[in-house]
Amino acid sequence: MSDLAPHPASIGAVLLVGGRASRMGGGDKPLLDVGGASLFARAARALQNAGCRPIVAVGPELDASADVRWVREDPPFGGPVAALAAALDGAEAGDWTVLLAGDLPRADELVPRLLAGRSESTAGTVFVADGHPQWLAGVYRTSALRRALADLGGEVAGASCRALLGELELTLLPDDDGVTADVDTPDDLARARLRAVPSQRIEETTHD
Description:
Blueprint: E1 11-16, E2 33-34, E3 37-38, H1 39-49, E4 55-58, E5 69-71, H2 80-88, E6 96-101, H3 107-116, E7 124-129, E8 132-141, H4 142-151, H5 161-165, E9 170-174, H6 186-195, H7 199-207
Parallel strand pairs: 1-4, 1-6, 4-5, 7-9
Antiparallel strand pairs: 2-3, 6-8, 7-8
């Protein structure tokens, strides 16, 4: 059980939307429609609804009207660690940072559960699926992320999330119902679309 309120004021987010989508045939995977909204829009809305500020999206600018700050990792396609480094480089950030992949169709469920699972006694919380930490479905102390990046000595391009985050003391949150399942293949996309609540219904529920 969390020993913190689920939605503290000082919490930001880094949303990763710059992958190559090679198993989807290329293109901008976060713009794929699931339930009447793009994967990017679903993730951004989930973070906004959770009170995350600021939200930094790392990748090509997919939506100029989105209420996020856009940055690009160096080099482009340098991987999630390079993306995180670009997002936090000299930028204002909250005490905590949600690190979220941009291809999670159930972000609206995932983000509240992740924040509710935070603990004051560890450096962060990550979901665990099939025994593996889902590094890009986690929330971390921003100071711990900055120290871990500094420990890499600038060698961020191509670095693994395990190399960056694997030594942190983390709270592990079991994924018992596939909430962290991402969209990597056309079959994943088909499953996500079958499961998705249409965007209009999400908005209606929010305003009931």
